[in-house]
Specification:
With about 300 residues, the protein is an alpha/beta fold. The longest helix has 29 residues. A hairpin with a 3-residue loop joins strand 1 and strand 2. It has a five-stranded mixed β-sheet with strand order 4-3-5-13-6, with helices on both faces. The chain has a four-stranded mixed β-sheet with strand order 8-12-7-11. Strands 1-2 form a two-stranded antiparallel ribbon. It is built from twelve helices and 13 strands.
Length: about 300
């Protein structure tokens, strides 16, 4: 078995087309097809469902692709470590994030790039929690800033806490809330709200807190973008519940106020999620080291324009 054969199979799984997979691997289509057939012969199982065109992978093929991704990831990690020993970290860090934690990602990448000036970073900042765990398992991400996983995922992932997400009611400073030091979740539910989309984990957290406060929330507008929440509040027609960490970037926009939400006071743990893997890639190890040198809670608590 050659690693190149595994690369061909993974490319075919990704592109779902023999010609495109061959183009991606810089080989002819007959060479790619022949190599995958040899792999099938060696493993003694069919990997690809074939007719006149590609119809997908067999169940055996789907399992072999997972092993292939793991083997290729380990190969790449070994090369990265050798390069790091020779000339420092030059790897590309692939970092994911849920939308509500994007501001924390910027603090991480700043520290990582300062400590590793030859490294590069690719950030995917609009992922759902399920997307993140799936991409970590298939080695498409090195790490992600996200919510603490449940017990079902605890065995597969390591979680480094970074900060606790708090929530504020963002509204017009001319509203009654602009004069109050805090506001209840029940009162917030009575506002014309713009909230995150129900499919997002951050919204499910809000729904649970509103339910704990004994109220049902029915927003006027729903969006999958935290920036869109700010934009809607700026129109003067809506209010919103936003993560306090976003104020670290935007501050409290002129004409708006951010009032802490109470009854209950709720926080959600945000941290750095990585796949349990020994040894971890050098990029992942460097990111964990960078995260350990940041007081994320203190930095995110600094609001531009505030004293």
């Amino acid at each position: 078995m050659l690693l190149r054969q595994l690369e061909y199979l993974v490319a075919l799984s990704r592109t779902r087309h023999f010609a495109r997979a061959a183009e991606e691997c810089y080989v002819s289509q007959p060479a790619l097809s022949g190599s995958i057939r040899k792999l099938e012969e060696e493993l003694r199982v069919p990997l690809v469902r074939r007719s006149r065109r590609y119809e997908g992978l067999t169940p055996e093929g789907e399992r072999i692709v997972l092993w292939a991704k793991r083997l290729l990831a380990d190969r790449d990690a070994m090369h990265e470590e050798v390069r790091a020993l020779r000339s420092g970290i030059t790897a590309r860090l692939r970092l994911g994030s849920v939308p509500t934690a994007v501001t924390a990602v910027a603090l991480l990448t700043q520290e990582f790039c300062t400590c590793n000036p030859l490294a590069r970073v690719e950030v995917l900042a609009d992922l759902q929690t399920d997307d993140i765990t799936a991409r970590l398992r298939t080695y498409e991400l090195d790490a992600a800033v996200t919510y603490q996983p449940g017990k079902d995922d605890a065995a597969d992932f390591a979680f480094l806490p970074l900060y606790r997400e708090r929530f504020v009611l963002l509204s017009q400073d001319t509203s009654e809330h602009g004069k109050l030091p805090e506001v209840s979740w029940a009162e917030a539910a009575r506002q014309p709200l713009c909230l995150l989309h129900p499919r997002m984990f951050g919204r499910r957290i809000l729904n649970a807190v509103f339910a704990e406060a004994g109220t049902l929330v029915e927003p006027r507008v729903e969006t999958d973008s935290v920036a869109s929440l700010f934009a809607h509040v700026r129109t003067g027609q809506f209010a919103s519940v936003v993560p306090h960490a976003w104020l670290h970037v935007f501050g409290v926009p002129a004409g708006l106020c951010a009032t802490p939400l109470v009854n209950p006071v709720h926080t959600a743990q945000i941290g750095l999620l990585t796949l349990r893997r020994e040894p971890a890639s050098v990029a992942t190890q460097a990111l964990l080291a960078a995260a350990g040198g940041i007081d994320m809670t203190a930095q995110l608590g600094r609001i531009p324009g505030s004293r």
